[in-house]
Amino acid sequence: MKNFKRFLAAAMTFALVLGCVGFAGCGSKKDDVYEVGICQLVQHPALDAATQGFRDALTELLGDKVKFDEQNAAGDSPTCATIVNSFVANNYDLILANATAPLQAASAATTKIPVLGTSITDYATALELKNFSGATGINVSGTSDLAPLDKQAAIIKELFPNVKQVGILYCSAEANSKYQATVIEKELDSLGIKYKEYTFADSNDIQMVTTSACEACDVLYIPTDNTAASNTSIIDAVALDKKVPIVCGEEGICKGCGVATLSISYYNIGYVTGQMAYDILVNGADVSKMDIKYASEPVKEYVAERCEKLGIKIPDGYTAITTE
Fold first, then answer.
1. Tens-place pLDDT, residues 26-52
2. Do domains 32-145+266-291 and 149-263+299-320 have the same CATH topology?
3. 267 Cβ partners below 8 Å, 6+ apart?
4. 249 Cβ contact list (under 8 Å, min separation 6)
5. Which of 9, 170, 223, 321 is the most buried (most CB within 10 A)?
6. pTM above 0.90?
């Protein structure tokens, strides 16, 4: 009987361990430090803000019981894979993937470690998910940076009622940029506005493609696009020279080269992602069942100095972006 009781106790312990094997984060590290790997695609204000929000939330909730390994891929997808593979090799407790390429790399690298994304426009597009209904069903969840594209199209109509053609400018290598372009084209169709896509493969041809777009269009639209965000000075120089205004998908790009945007707070979505991470790490939440969370209350914003240079009058209801 004693042997049977020992066997039963051992079997129950083994079963409990197995219950935590599927995904890490079973709330069992009360006295240890959680190790979190952060892979950010590239350095620019929006992604930087999301990472900061994530770190702030987890630090507030865990104090010195969380350790971050933050690495930047400098815009290179293969480097994303190298970074997240090192996180997996070190058996980190959770991975934050900031932007689409890191998310795709992390999803390919592990099916066990919880992965949270942020600054992702559409998870179904990024991860090629079918029948997506809020939760991914795999070891991935997170937050989206998708602002209402119908309202962004409405801004173009509001500010430029006589626009002849909108040039949609984005990086062809970014799946979520293509997704936004497709959606906003439908919105422009509904408003009776003509448009044409102008895509660049990487930073090397941004100047040439932007020049072509400015020569053929009287307004440009740039969605949330990491390559564009990292090269706004090039885009701005061309557009100002051609006197073509740009409406942007988020505040960081708008600050660098745009006149107006309907933007979310990247710090806030990063902060929410940090709260999700706490729920996984400490409370044992199942990442595969956590719905993707979306930003709330996007804000109409404008850049006064650039609007003045281009002779654009901004109506009431817009908040000025500080460019200093």
1. 444 656 899 999 999 999 999 999 999
2. yes
3. 49, 50, 52, 53
4. 147, 152, 180, 221, 222, 223, 224, 225, 261, 263
5. 223
6. no
Joined together, the tokens standing for residue 280 give 């996984």
CATH number belonging to domain 32-145+266-291: 3.40.50.2300
Question: Among candidates 93, 91, 87, which has minimal Cα distance to 30?
Answer: 93
Q: CA Rg, the chain, in Å?
A: 22
Q: Which residue has the tokens 């129950």?
A: 12
CATH topology of domain 149-263+299-320: Rossmann fold (3.40.50)
The 3-state DSSP class for residue 230 equals coil
Model confidence over 186-223: pLDDT tens digits? 999 999 999 999 999 999 999 999 999 999 999 999 99
Token code pair at residue 210: 């932007």
CA dihedral of 93, 107, 123, 209, whole degrees rounded to 10: 120
Q: Burial, 13: exposed, middle or buried (Cβ in 10 Å; 0-12, 13-18, 19+)?
A: exposed
Domains of the chain, residue spans: 32-145+266-291, 149-263+299-320
For residue 247, the surrounding DSSP H or E stretch is strand 246-248
Token pair for residue 79? 């480097």
- What would the two tokens of residue 20 be? 């935590």
Strands of the sheet containing 260-263, edge to edge, are 194-200, 165-171, 219-222, 246-248, 260-263, 299-302, 319-320
75: its two tokens: 């815009």
Q: 85 to each of 42, 142, 163, 165, how far by Cα in Å?
A: 18, 20, 48, 44
CA distance 203 to 217: 21
Residue 255: count of CB within 10 angstroms of its CB? 23
DSSP state of 145: -
DSSP string, 77-95: HHHHHHHHHHHHHTT-SEE
At 305, the amino acid letter reads E
Query: pLDDT tens for residues 238-248?
Result: 999 999 999 99
300 and 319 Cβ atoms separated by less than 8 Å: yes
